[in-house]
Amino acid sequence: MSAKGSIFVALFSGINVGGNRIVKMAELKAFFESLGFSDVATYVQSGNVVFQAKKADAAALTKELEAAFEKKWGFSSRIMVRDAGWFERLVKDNPYPEVAGEPTKLHAYVLEREPTAEETTRLADKCTGPEQFEIKGDVLYLHAPDGLGKSVFANLIPRTLKVPGTARNWRTVLALLEMAGKAGV
What domain of life does the native source organism fall in (predicted)? Predict the structure, then answer.
């Protein structure tokens, strides 16, 4: 950790989806800055924030952000906070490198926790289409050859796995990793 702090990425779930629970990224950036975070940058409208924090505890940051967010906006959003090193491992551990160049066909689900063997088996039983998935720790990698929008299986993941999480396409994953690498420099 530098003298200024550690770099983190916050991934919001359920904001700016289908015209509901709208949060403008400029307002989200100002919100993070008002909480004392520095080097704050947002990426696309789905709620991705790269920031620097003096506190190096992702779990504590998650609780702080979720409580402050609900107080400000009047609704809750599950937030996954991960450090830059976690994002580096996510990219390095990609089990589908052959489709990394097709970012709309590769997604990473950032999960609140590692699923149990029983939860993973239950999900595998539902994977009967062209999709493939692999879980590594608290990340579910999904290769959807026809894209996420046409994937029946992708819609089954949250309610079958029952582990809270939020998905990002590979383009977003790579952009956030790049932003984290430039933050605080």
Answer: Bacteria
Residues 6+ apart with CB under 8 A from 7: 39, 50, 51, 52, 83, 84, 180, 183, 184
pLDDT under 50: residue ranges of the chain: 1-2
Rounded Cα distance between 20 and 15, Å, is 7
Would you identify the CATH topology of the domain 6-86?
A: Alpha-Beta Plaits (3.30.70)
Is the whole-model pTM more than 0.85?
Answer: yes
Burial class (CB in 10 A: 0-12, 13-18, 19+), 80: buried
Taking the C-alpha atoms of residue 172 and residue 27, their distance in angstroms, rounded to an integer, is 20
